Amino acid sequence: MWLKDQKMQRKSKNIKSQLPKVGFFFLIVGILIFISTPLKKLKGEVFEEMRLAIFQLNINENNDKTTISDINTENLQVTTENITEAEENDKKANYSYIGELSIPKIKLRRGFVSKESRYNNIEYNITIANESNYPDVPLGNFILMAHSGNAYISFFDKLYKLQIGDEASVSYNANTYNYRLTNIYNQAKTGTVAIYRNPNVKTLTLITCTHNDDYNQTIYIFEEI
Known about the structure:
Helix content: 25-40%
Strand order of the largest sheet: 3-2-6-7-10-9-5-4
Distance between the termini: 92 Å
CATH superfamily: Sortase
Largest sheet: 8 strands, mixed
CATH architecture: Beta Barrel
Strand content: 25-35%
Number of helices: 2
Number of strands: 10
Shape: globular
Radius of gyration: 25 Å
């Protein structure tokens, strides 16, 4: 009986001695899970900074009527399935920017590729709509679309913080075009969106999913300063 008690005591001590190791293991696993998403975002930001730097080098080397347009937004909705694929594809993608969108208030700096590029796709980049003019077209409308939310490809996740009067700029063909936000409105997600703008002013239009709303999309109209 005495021997049996001794064995049980030793077994109990062994179990107790293992508890700190088990706890430490789960602590490490928890930390890794917690930081994995920020790390992925950080890696994405590093890739982005590299591409913006390359774009900047190229730039340095080259010195009250309303019109309505219908824009196709069928692919604007982000899904769980395409987030991981987009992140992996972006690491392998080999492309360079032709311009850059900057909105200082929300610390947004993101390049864009040409309309003809296969990477002009919201699963890779801020996307130029097919119906868009380039920023250097007189009285044109430069239309950009991107996801919102918390995904790796949610480049317009902070647009909801903008207010009328906030400013944005677009660098393109060695020139910078400055804009001021004049209108914000929502529309239901139907696969298209109507753009209301003044045809007598050059404009920048940004389109994304409405913040914390699965059924609407938000349109931001900027006019050139």
